[in-house]
Amino acid sequence: MATILLGSCPYDPSTRYGYVYLKHLGRILSKQHKVVVLRHANLPELQYVLSTYNPVFVVLNGHGGARAISGCNGNIILGMKGYDPDLDVVIYRENLYWMKDRIVYLFTCNCGKELAPALIDYGAKAVAAYKDMFLFMTDDNVPPLKDQTAKSFFTAALQLPIHLAMGEPFWLGCEATRRAFLYYTEYYERLGKENIAKYMWHNYLNFVCYGDMEVSIWA
After folding, report:
1. Are 208 and 166 in contact (CB under 8 A)?
2. CA distance 33 to 1
């Protein structure tokens, strides 16, 4: 049994979707592993959970930039020094070492540009992220988990943690995520829903993986 941290903060429409789907993921993964769901992701709470439970796998959702990811109310929870043009914020203190010896999924926009590879330099075993915006579409007339359009995007994106939880290596989880984005791209193209297909293809192109491709949550 491994310990997995799912961190989010539902303070606007996009992060509310992220939280709902991470919470749903947590229910699935908790059948095999110890899962900590951090609903109000802020700097002190993230530090407390990391030091108390020492998760081997960390998934963070929020608003991302090239150099940082934000939690509740836009507060930076993980970042490297410097100006982040995507978040329009200057980071004065960095905490990348918090992810040392962990597998990390930055399930948000833009963090694949600089933050994800920098985490490898600071000792993270493997990191997945997106080089540009993570795009998804919703149907505001139904709840998130019953929203079939949104569900397609999150089903694809969450293949990585699902496969890692099954004990498979990092590269296979990354490949499963890419294949899922491609599957839904082709599926929505056949239905003539070009906008959804375009967003799926965008996510496929911008999903990146760094570090030890053979690592798993057991090693």
Report:
1. no
2. 5
CA-based nearest residue to 21, from 159, 134, 141, 158: 158
10 Å CB burial of residue 124 (0-12, 13-18, 19+) is: buried
What digits encode the pLDDT tens for the residues 92-111? 999 999 999 999 999 999 99
HEC profile of 101-169: CCEEEECCCCCCCCHHHHHHHCCCCEEEEECCCCCCCCCCCCCHHHCHHHHHHHHHHCHHHHHHHCCCC
Using DSSP, how many helices (H) and how many strands (E) does the chain show?
7, 11
The residue type at 170: F
Report the alpha-carbon distance of residue 86 to residue 57 in Å, rounded. 26
Per-residue CA distances from 102 to 92, 118, 138 (Å): 24, 13, 32
Residues 154-181 have pLDDT tens digits of 999 999 999 999 999 999 999 999 999 9
Do 200 and 185 contact (CB within 8 A), yes or no?
yes
CATH topology of domain 3-211: Rossmann fold (3.40.50)
Cβ-contact 185, 156 below 8 angstroms: no
Place of tokens 């970042």: 79
pTM value is 0.96
Taking each helix axis as running N to C, give the angle between helix 170-190 and helix 148-157, from 0 to 180 degrees, rounded to the nearest 10: 150
Can you tell me the distance from the alpha carbon of 90 to that of 12, in angstroms, rounded to the nearest whole number? 22
Tokens of 108: 């948000």
